[in-house]
Amino acid sequence: MAELLDQEEQRGDFSTRFELSAHALRIQVDGVGELPLPVRAPVAKKLIAQARQARFGRGEQTLSDTRVRDTWEITPDRVTLGGPDWDRTLSGVLDGVRHALGLPPTTALRAEPHALLVYGKGQFFLPHQDSEKDDSMVGTLVVSLPSHHSGGELVVEHAGRSVTHRASREQLTFVAFYADCRHEVRPVTAGYRVTLTMNLLAERVRPADGNDGGPVADLAHRLTEHFAQPAEQRYGYGRPETTPPNRLVYLLDHEYSRRGLDWDRLKGADATRAARLRQAAGQAGCEAVLALAEVKETWDAVPPYDRYDYYGETEHFDECEDDECEGECRLDPDGEPGAERRRTGDFSDYELGDLIDDEITLGWWTRPDGTGGEQISLPVPYAEVCATTENKDLTPYQSEYEGYMGNYGNTLDRWYRRAAVVLWPRQRSFAARAEAGSEQALRELQGHLDAGELHRARTLAQSLAPFWKHHGSGEAAAPLFAAALRVAVGLRDADTAAMLLAPFGVETLAEEHAPDLAAAAAQYGWRWARNTVSTWFGPVGARTGADRTAWLASLPGLCAALRTSDGDGDAVAAPLAEGAWQATRQQLTGWLDVGREAERRAGMERLGAPLAHVLQAADGGTADTIATALRGLPDTVLECLLPVLRTAARRPATARNGTHAARAFQALADHCETVLTTSVARPVRAADDWSLAPAGACRSGCDLCPDLDAFLNSRTRRVMEWPLAQARRRHVHSRIDLAGLPVSHTTRRQGRPYTLVLTKTDAVFTREQATRDRAEADLVWLRKNWPRTPR
Fold first, then answer.
1. Is the dihedral of CA 643, 645, 649, 650 positive or negative?
2. Is residue 407 over pLDDT 80?
3. Hey, is 789 helix, strand or coil?
4. Which of 24, 139, 335, 613 could form a disulfide with 730 if both were Cys (CB 3.0 to 4.6 A apart)?
5. pLDDT tens digit string along 169-179?
């Protein structure tokens, strides 16, 4: 199809040529037996002994004249063609011939053996035109058997052009041409030329109609074939054939915006090709839409020779002089990460090798009627894509190169934005659209429900199960979620309803969904509601980002709307608040384990507002559970609790109105005051006290960390000189850095092994004083804004 669209104005040539493996054919000749390929002189002489002088036709006459045609001929009744791959090979050749010669797709070619010919030295056939030996004959196929010979070129001419074909010495050579083409066989100058000539017979495989000819009919036929044959597996490895593909995605050459993606505003060759495909879709019973695609390709690639060394593009730290390193480390002399470099910029001069992987995802398409469009998310498999212009021939909008890293690398990633024409059979329209997360497919389901066609709606909805996967979250997915939610309520089938709603993220939920959520919970029960809500939070440990933070800010309003909606909104609000707490708690405990104070404090502070919103959304039992769990955490949790209380203090109407959340906030405020009061009451560190807390548990159980902890615990030792090999120095570096200790570590590069010098810094005192000052200020603010509840 891609070739047809590239050469749509050229309806084929008068001659074509293919070469294929000789193993595909086994040929037997009466009186000679099976011919070994390549054919050598002794076998050729045996063939000549069984042959007769070849004749030729002139008008109605059949003549024999060696001045016109000097060659030996064996009739087809004495020749048997076979081999395990011959029928398939010949069928493929005929299909290629049909396409190359420009015959319409309504035509099927059949090859009828005519003669086996042997040309010896000096033999030839003067220019002539084949007679049409059958009403359906359109041309001639010459199969040259591999043999060692010189000369004997086949020259075909038509309309002032000529093409010279030379036979391969190792492979089968197929040459096809129209019957009205003049052609000749030039004299053989050495060896023997052995060929099998066959008549090409054209048969119509379906009736002609008014649109039978031209590229549109050819494209329509290809479309029909595409949707009728099992999808080709890119890496089959002997796996059985699969079902036919659901769609065809033809990639266009130009980029378009969503607003500019319109049939009447396509550019250049895209306009012609898209119009052809749209017409072909109509003939083939298909629908066609325009789409926007994101394409990523990963290539095996290397930079130009003068820009990389033997090991790849990654450079080592410029000043690394450690003999123990042997040029293999990617760390600086003190063991700090960050020396690895990655080049960015123009990679157009990089040499591409093999295509390792590619990904194509449709993110937007128009509606079949051409009005408007919708956001989708549809990864496109290999068997559904074609393009006249390859991605590598276009300019990517982004490229990244990864140099050799020991067991991977030397890869170039390229990203492209391309438009596409997407086609599918009309009878598969619902599945093709629904698989992409199409809102229109859900509207079709809703239409069946509104019309009272409950069984039809259930059947179509259940057909989505194999591919109804993740469809995103947040505002972009909200319209699709709303449509799925309405359908889920109307289906009156708990399992199908859960399947429809499962692929969405919790960030999709908003206050406007509350009535339908409450209605669904009332219809299917609290257990169904709790299980469904759990799927929206995703797996334990799933990463969350800005979308989750923004959604948590809306959670109190959503839960309030649920509790006031008709139905059973509490069955949804309760697991929403519980799930939000569990996800937030996991993040909180993760930050508590971070030893570097500045990093930990920043992370804990970011959780303050989300945690306050969770408390505001929680019911009594959940709010009490949260408050109890927070009070049981280490005292560093105050780095999160104080931001929680500051967030709540900005909303006094919800924080001090006697609700469950208000009591939980007050309990946390009382806990914080107790901890801060104890903290500021501790004596100030003595001026000569250099002791520090241990670096934490060492998971490797090495013999270094006890000595390190002894140095840290010492009140008097400020400096420690420690002769260590490189790997052991790195371990100590990492222990100190992970714990965020106020200890500098440098390497003195003298002797063997080098000496690691550890020095406690003045931050031992300044950090502690800053912590005390902050605690005093927090205590003043807390007593003013959250006075302890009278007992």
1. positive
2. no
3. coil
4. 335
5. 999 999 998 87
